[in-house]
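Structure tokens please, single chain.
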Amino acid sequence: MRIESFKIAFPYGEGLKIERMKTINIESKEEIEAIINSCKHCVVSTVSIDGMPYSVPMNFVFHNGQLILHSAPTGTHLQNIENNNSICAVFCTDGKLVYQHKEVACSYRMRAQSVVCFGKVSFVENIDDKILLMNRLMAHYTQNEFNYSKPAIQNVKVWIVEIDKITGKSFAVPHRKSNL
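Here you go.
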């Protein structure tokens, strides 16, 4: 097999040199919520009846410790939830490429923050509750006000995820220099 040379576009630039970097856990509830609220979408993962993972990007809002999502009324993710209502949702900030040694591939990392939520899904059926939650969700993206037709609001699936566990991490954080 012949491999031809090609030019690569670097979407993250050439990178920023960092002497030493580490990953740290984020313990602050406020910082975790700030990371979530800075994101425009999350990736929600479910598990099929035969144990296969299935992930989809979704719009969301995080409100009062709950994750609110919406989707079409049918789909693989909903079939999976019928069998197991546990989900995992991942949020990640935009990354910045950093490295320790320009010529060492393994020294490159993305400086970013992430949050991983684990929880159980329930679906909202009440029309008034759906409208309230859809307005909260839309307020995450725009200040516009919306009216919903009865068929549209009846056909949307509105999810509430009760969070069981939530973790946050910062990646490629520079080590603080010692005063010693």
